[in-house]
Specification:
There is one protein chain. The protein has 302 residues and is α/β, with parallel strands linked by helices. It has 2 domains: 142 residues, Endonuclease, Chain A (2-Layer Sandwich), CATH 3.30.870; 131 residues, Endonuclease, Chain A, CATH 3.30.870.10. Helices cover 36% and strands 23% of the residues. The chain has 10 helices and 16 strands. A 7-stranded mixed beta sheet has the order 1-9-7-6-2-3-4, with helices on both faces. A hairpin with a 3-residue loop joins strand 14 and strand 15.
Length: 302
C-alpha cells in the first residue's frame, strides 16, 4: 500500500508513472516546476481526456515571473490552474493525487535540482483516508482557502499552519528512546526547548542538517521517532514553516517504509548533536521568512 522514495534516480519516474497511470483526474499541488518531462506528462494526460487541476503558490523568492509563465503555460495545455489565495499565508505544500486512489506526498520541487542533487523524501500511498483528505484539502485550498480543517480530519496528515505546531509538539513529547531528524532548519525556540527536554529525559537525538547526507544537498524534512514512527514532507522545525505557511507532512508507521528510512540514516552516519544547533534571533527569523527552505538560488538550468 505504501512505499518511501528516497534516491534521486527514483523521484522523477515515480511522478511520471503516477501521472501516466491517471485515467480520470490529476490534482497536483506544486511550489516550483521547470521539468519539461513532468509538464509533457501533464499535457499527455490532458490530451487523453484526464482532467488536470493544479494549485500553485502566488509567490516564491526570485520566482514571481516564472510562476506567472508556468501558470500561463499549463493553462494553455488545457489544465485548470489555481493560485493559493489566502492573504498572509505562504504556500509550500507538495503533493499529487491521481484518480482518487493514489497520492504522492513530497518534500521535493519538480525541477532538475530536486530530481538529481538533493536529499528529499516522497511517500507513495493508497491509504483511502489519506487520499480522501488530500482531495478535501486541495478542493478547499482552491475554492475557499483559509477554511479550518474539519473535525474528522485524518491525523496522519499534518497541515500547516493549522495543526503543524500542535502535532509536532505531541510527537516530540511522546519520544521515549530516540529521534533522528533530517532538517537543516531546526531553529524554532519551542521545538528546540522541547528537544532539549527530551534529551535530558534520556532520548537520544541526532540532527542531519547541512552536509549531513553524503553526496546530496540538504532539503527534505524527515523525523524518525523511536524507530516506530516517521514524519516526512515539507515542514521544517523553523518559525516560518510552523507559523505562516501552507505546508504538508505525513505520518508513517508502515514497517517496510520505516526500515528503508532507518537504513538511509544509518548509511548517512551519526548526524549532529542537538547542542550544535542555534535558535533564531528575531532578526534572523525575519530574514529567513521566505517561501522556500533553500538558502541557495536555483540555477538557470533548473
Amino acid at each position: 500500500m505504501e512505499r518511501v522514495i528516497l534516491t534521486p534516480a527514483e523521484r522523477r519516474p515515480a511522478i511520471l508513472d503516477a501521472i501516466a497511470a491517471a485515467q480520470s483526474k490529476v490534482r497536483l499541488s506544486m511550489f516550483r516546476c521547470t521539468d519539461f518531462r513532468v509538464m509533457d506528462a501533464l499535457a499527455a494526460a490532458q490530451q487523453r481526456g484526464v482532467a488536470v487541476k493544479l494549485l500553485l503558490t502566488q509567490r516564491a523568492k526570485g520566482w514571481e515571473k516564472k510562476i506567472r509563465e508556468l501558470g500561463q503555460y499549463l493553462e494553455s495545455m488545457g489544465a485548470e490552474v489555481h493560485r493559493y489565495g489566502l492573504a498572509g499565508t505562504k504556500y509550500h505544500a507538495k503533493y499529487l493525487v491521481v484518480d482518487d486512489c493514489l497520492a504522492l506526498i513530497s518534500s521535493a520541487n519538480l525541477t532538475l535540482r530536486y530530481f538529481e542533487k538533493t536529499s528529499d523524501f516522497i511517500l507513495e500511498t493508497r491509504d483511502a483516508g489519506v487520499v480522501a483528505n488530500l482531495i478535501r484539502l486541495f478542493e478547499a485550498d482552491t475554492a475557499t482557502p483559509g477554511v479550518p480543517l474539519p473535525a474528522d480530519w485524518n491525523r496522519r496528515l499534518i497541515v500547516g499552519p493549522d495543526v503543524s505546531r500542535t502535532e509536532f509538539v505531541a510527537r516530540i513529547a511522546a519520544a521515549q528512546k530516540s529521534m533522528r531528524i533530517v532538517d537543516h532548519r531546526v531553529k524554532d525556540p519551542q521545538m528546540l526547548a522541547l528537544l532539549r527536554e527530551r534529551e535530558r529525559a534520556g532520548v537520544k537525538i541526532a540532527v542531519y542538517g547541512k552536509k549531513s547526507i553524503p553526496g546530496l544537498k540538504s532539503h527534505g524534512k524527515m523525523m524518525l521517532i523511536d524507530g516506530a514512527y516517521a514524519i516526512l514532507g515539507s515542514i521544517s522545525l523553523s518559525p516560518p514553516a510552523l507559523g505562516n505557511r501552507r505546508e504538508l507532512s505525513v505520518g508513517v508507521d508502515d514497517s517496510g517504509c520505516l526500515s528503508v528510512l532507518d537504513q538511509f540514516l544509518r548509511a548517512a552516519g551519526p548526524g549532529m548533536p542537538l547542542a550544535s544547533l542555534k535558535q533564531y534571533s528575531a532578526a534572523t527569523a525575519e530574514m529567513d521568512d521566505d517561501e522556500d527552505d533553500d538558502e541557495e538560488k536555483e540555477s538557470d538550468e533548473d
